[in-house]
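Summarise what follows for lecture notes:
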Amino acid sequence: MIGVVSDPRFMDHDTGGYHPESPMRIQYLHTLFTRPDSGIMLTEPVCSTIEDILLNHGRSYIDSIARTADSDAYTDLDPDTTCSRDSYIVSLLAAGSVVRLTEMALDHRISAGFACVRPPGHHARKDQAMGFCLFNNVAIAAHKAIHSLGAEKVAIVDFDVHHGNGTQESFYSDSRVLYFSTHQYPFYPGTGALSETGAGQGAGYTLNCPMRGGKRDGHYLAVFRYILQPVIESFEPDLILVSAGFDAHAMDPIGGMQLSSNGFAAIAAVIQEAARDAGAPVVYSLEGGYNLAALKDSASRVIHVLKGEPAPDIEPLAFPELENFIRIHGSMWPLTLR
């Protein structure tokens, strides 16, 4: 049974007239769940507690976001990130819903989860909103899983076209949380170089796979098959959280990659295979994706894979950057082109 959070309340975060991270993203996704489906358990969104938000963010920062609810005007937190009167409560709902699905997955009430939430989260730093993100939903869920839900190790997989700088910072020195990211590079936010591999006890547990624009389905499949899958096999996480950004789609107006909707389904299949081998549940949290039709189609195909339907057969394609990924990350993990 797949647990899904999808609710029109996530449209209440108003970003203004022409902002790409618009409420319409939820409207398009919510149409996927308007008919009963025996394989899907629709789950009500729930507000995060402040204590859970504090696992990843500072008190003064949380208070600054809360104060935006006192104004009827838009509050610009940075050139890209806007709050409206309802944004604070919607952000609590987003973080709380990812935590709720995580708890259900670790309790074996669901086999996998998909949180259709906004605002997204992976750029949110401890004390700074950026890149459309207010609270880091996936990072909060990872902290919660380790602190009170019984998980000892968590893997975070981020396939958004942008690097999740906030998530990386949260766990850069922590060997309990592995962070794996495929992203366009150089690109916003400027982080995610191959050399960024963690520090202290977390050395080697950050795996960045930065790629130049134009990469297609087969290139992505090679990275997930030859890098992520053996790393998950070695790391043996108790939980896999996925920052599911669909802005690497060829139709996306912001990104510069050439993934298809089938490509995202094939990526999801590799993640599921790795998760089954590790005995770990998988919970997805929506990040980017700004072409509405591509977003809906891609998310739909991923959910079909989570329900156990066959994924498209896409052949992995080797490319020069892949050899660099294996060279750098292979110093700690058993990586080969197999």
